[in-house]
Amino acid sequence: MSKFQNYDFSGKKALIRVDFNVPIKDGQITDDTRMRAALPTIKKVLTDGGSVILMSHWGRPLKEIKKDPSKDFSNFTLKQIESHLSELLETEVLFATEPAGYEAQLKAAELQTGQILLLENLRFTQHEESGDKDFAEALSKLGDVYVNDAFGTAHRAHASTAVIAQFFKPEDRMFGLLMEAEINAANKVMNEAQSPFTAIIGGAKVSDKIMIIENLLNKATDIIIGGGMAYTFFKAQGGNIGGSLCEEDKLQLALDLLKKADEKGVNIHLPVDSIIADKFSNDAETSSANNMEIPEGWMGLDIGAEACEAFSKVVKESKTILWNGPMGVFEMEKFQNGTKTIAEAVVAATKSGAFSLVGGGDSVAAVNKFGYANDVSYVSTGGGAMLEFFEGKELPGIAAINN
Ligand code: AMP
Fold first, then answer.
1. Which terminal residue of the chain, N or C, has fewer Cβ atoms less than 10 Å from its own Cβ?
2. What does the pLDDT read at residue 360?
């Protein structure tokens, strides 16, 4: 059992950093996954006989208002999630209108066993993102024990995600259940992968994924490269890619990555063919082409039939799978087939006993769109954090608890 599971919260005030940065449109929460993901941690504290103080950010109020001073500051209040949180927990949720001021101190001091206090958006002050030590200390005074359950912000050295941990004794600071699950899943892939280990890397830009590919060259047996980023590799090898996405300044880098993979004995799988379109639109004319010979006036927007078959075969033979980034413009129906086919291959491999982790915003969105979220081993809630973890970086939110 983990430290969190073993901890007796009875009579304690648990200060829990959650990630309640949920999408809200016209005052309505459109996806409450992140809130639901934090419930087991909150419930464990309450069941033990403790009380809970929740802190989170929502959006980037100071940055957005700087850009557009006419924006309404009150649109960023966490008050707007209070009633939904109360429904999910089936109990009243108290609210403090500032995260660490007098009201928060008073309400935290008076908090009774079984009660929940939600603090106002941490990013209403610049001290959160700047990692201000005094602000972190003021927050720390609200609770007896610190629980970090916000994997989505674990890659930030902010006051509430990292700096605060030093104000608690090592035995009184820990990860929550969600954070533990994320770290365990990521470790299983990064440090305990069974071979063959296939990383599927897609998405728009090579530049966003260089570090993760470089790090995976030391870990994976196979790397599948799909999506818009694949065309830079074809152009670098002398191919004609028409109007497909290309980062001209990354051509040499693409060749270097292929060379490094060769030296390390890692198989790089590039898509042989593409579904091409005459414009970036769901009502474009479409055809298929070899990726070395995409005609002028056409662009590759999805991997083609041969690539689907080849990639599926590699995925189905894998024992460990990491998937970050779609194979094409899956948001448009005409170009979703490649991403869907790969999702099906990941599901099939998982059924045969492979461990599969889907991480990173758009591949998670794709797996959800096709209804496969429950058919893979783990779907990460942390886009940027998961990416940095696989780039081999130490995440400040993790380090602050461990060190
Ligand atoms: P990323 O955030 O880098 O993982 O990129 C995800 C985005 O890449 C999605 O919105 C996809 O629509 C887009 N994408 C994937 N393949 C292509 C492609 N061949 N051409 C243009 N955009 C693409």
1. N
2. 76
Return the number of other C-beta atoms located less than 10 Å from residue 267's C-beta.
14
Q: Which of 205, 362, 369, 391 is the best mutation target for the ligand 1 pocket, counting ligand atoms within 8 Å of the beta carbon and taking the most?
A: 362
pTM of the model: 0.91
Instruction: Collapse the DSSP code of 224 into the 3-class scheme (helix H, G, I; strand E, B; otherwise coil) and give the result.
Output: strand
| 315-337 confidence digits (pLDDT tens) | 999 999 999 999 999 999 999 99
At 64 the pLDDT is 85
15 token code pair: 């200060």
What pLDDT score does 66 carry? 84
Q: Give the pLDDT score at 329.
A: 97
Q: How many residues does the chain have?
A: 403
Name residues whose C-beta falls within 8 Å of residue 263's C-beta, 6 or more positions apart in sequence. none
Q: Is 99 in the pocket of ligand 1 (CB under 6 A)?
A: no
Rounded-to-integer distance, Cα 334 and Cα 280, Å: 11
Distance CA 229, CA 272 (A): 14
C-alpha dihedral over 213, 214, 219, 222, to 10 degrees?
50
What is the maximum alpha-carbon separation in the chain? Answer: 70
Whole-number average pLDDT of the chain: 95
- Rounded distance, CA 80 to CA 76, Å? 8
Distance CA 122, CA 130 (A): 11
The pLDDT of residue 183:
95
Kindly name the residue from 101, 114, 384, 392 that is annotated as catalytic: 384
Query: Would you state the structure tokens that stand for residue 314, as one six-digit string?
Result: 């590699």
| Residue 325 Cβ < 6 Å to ligand 1 | yes
Q: Is 384 a catalytic residue?
A: yes
SS3 264: helix
Using CA positions, which residue lies closest to atom 15 of ligand 1?
328
Tell me the per-residue pLDDT of 73-122, one tens digit each, with 9 for 90 and over: 888 999 999 999 999 999 999 999 999 999 999 999 999 999 999 999 99
Cβ of 359 below 6 Å from ligand 1: no
Please report, for residues 16, 213, 276, 321, 384, the alpha-carbon distance to residue 188 in angstroms, rounded to integers and kept in the order given: 25, 18, 37, 10, 18
Q: What is the 3-state secondary structure (H, E, C) of 294-358?
A: ECCCCEEEEECHHHHHHHHHHHHCCCEEEEECCCCCCCCHHHCHHHHHHHHHHHHHHHCCCEEEE
Bridge partners (DSSP) of residue 145 are: 14
Backbone angles phi, psi at 110, to 5 degrees: -90, 0
β-pair partners for 299:
277
Question: Is 205 part of the annotated catalytic residue set?
Answer: yes
